[in-house]
Specification:
Layout: E1 40-43, E2 56-57, H1 59-62, E3 71-73, E4 79-84, E5 97-102, E6 120-121, E7 133-134, E8 136-146, E9 161-169, E10 186-191, E11 200-206, E12 218-224, E13 245-252, E14 255-262, E15 266-273, E16 298-306, H2 327-333, E17 336-347
Parallel strand pairs: 6-7
Antiparallel strand pairs: 1-2, 1-5, 3-4, 4-17, 5-16, 8-13, 8-17, 9-10, 9-16, 10-11, 11-12, 13-14, 14-15
């Protein structure tokens, strides 16, 4: 590490009232006709090619591609992501997703997916100059159209929620360096209980520790409305389904700067260092990795990661949500999540 111990996290909150699947699809509805997807691949909640694995569409194949149920342009030109509660999932998750993964290499498959050239690092990371980028910026404007509304474990934190943007760390084969656990320094959540007028937008920071470490947990920070632990209706302080909001994740040098904007509720700004264990409130988190994510390889994800898992074993992520695995049935029953993006832009970081 170059300078981790010298970096101190900043936290400012302001509120200003202001304003390969094999199935062919109709390319007229392809999101790539409206959005620049030249550095994105997508994971879908399906196994349409029958290989026993969740479907992924590469950077090359996503150009001109759409899926009629899970990934398409709507009549307003929005990029729609849909994920039923019960469907095919990735190997290490019980949650379904229709979600993009940023690929700095673009369509150049000679560069490895998990290699440094295809991911970004913080400036303080050793050999950060060998990465595809130092930091980066993800900007999105979206509305959440629907979240699952039938949970067998309604008190579970992830019930009735979805993730619409995140930074993920690459999982290393060897974690002796104290990094490479494959955790997430940020996941942006939207959660709305079935009988509530509005939902909450919040984000979580996952302590960067080994999977079997009891201190490895997600710490939630509010934006509009509540976080996991508050089940009251946020009312006018929350975001209803169908209302636009925006987020910007700007990792500049060693700090993650966050900006959330709502025409009705104003702007919220937050920041946290990614190279020490100072939390987003400016306090020392002695349980976290001493250098946060300072030794990791990082990448952006955006779209819809449904948190209403049908898993029912009582674990943290087990929301025991309803789902049959038959999409027409599950759609009719409301057992799915959906978000529509009107903006999605990724690029270099900028001074904050």
């Amino acid at each position: 590490m170059k300078c981790c111990s010298a970096i101190v996290a900043a936290f400012i909150v302001s509120s200003v009232v202001a304003s390969v699947p094999s199935v062919a699809h109709d390319t007229s509805a392809a999101p790539s006709t409206k959005f620049d997807l030249s550095e994105w691949k997508i994971t879908l909640p399906a196994d349409e090619n029958g290989d026993g694995k969740v479907d992924e569409v590469s950077v090359r194949k996503i150009q001109g591609y759409s899926h009629p149920d899970y990934f398409y342009l709507d009549a307003e030109g929005r990029m729609v992501f849909t994920a039923p509660n019960k469907a095919k999932t990735t190997k290490n998750s019980s949650n379904t997703r229709s979600e993009l993964r940023h690929m700095l290499r673009g369509a150049n498959t000679r560069l490895k997916t998990h290699g440094p050239e295809n991911n970004f690092a913080v400036e303080a990371r050793k050999d950060s100059d060998k990465f595809g980028a130092v930091g980066g910026k993800l900007e999105a404007t979206l509305r959440v159209d629907h979240v699952a509304r039938n949970s067998g474990n309604p008190s579970s934190k992830p019930a009735y929620s979805a993730v619409v943007g995140q930074i993920h760390a690459v999982k290393y084969d060897n974690t002796r360096s104290g990094f490479g656990y494959g955790n997430e320094p940020i996941k942006i959540f939207y959660k709305k209980l079935p009988d509530h007028q509005t939902g909450s937008v919040f984000w979580s920071y996952e302590r960067n520790l080994a999977k079997n470490d009891p201190d490895r947990t997600d710490i939630a920070y509010p934006v509009w409305g509540n976080v996991w632990t508050d089940t009251s209706d946020p009312g006018e302080a929350g975001i209803p389904l169908g209302e636009d909001f925006s987020y910007t994740i700007n990792v500049y040098r060693n700090t993650m700067y966050l900006t959330f904007e709502s025409e009705r509720l104003g702007t919220v700004r937050q920041a946290i260092s990614l190279v020490n264990n100072i939390d987003a409130n400016g306090n020392v988190d002695a349980a976290d990795n001493k250098y946060s994510y300072g030794g990791d390889s990082l990448y952006f994800k955006a779209g819809l990661y449904n948190q209403c898992s049908t898993k029912a074993d009582g674990s943290f992520w087990a929301a025991a949500c309803a789902g049959t695995g038959d999409w027409p049935t599950d759609k009719a029953n409301g057992d799915y999540a959906q978000a529509s993006f009107s903006k999605l832009v990724v690029g270099p970081s900028s001074p904050q």
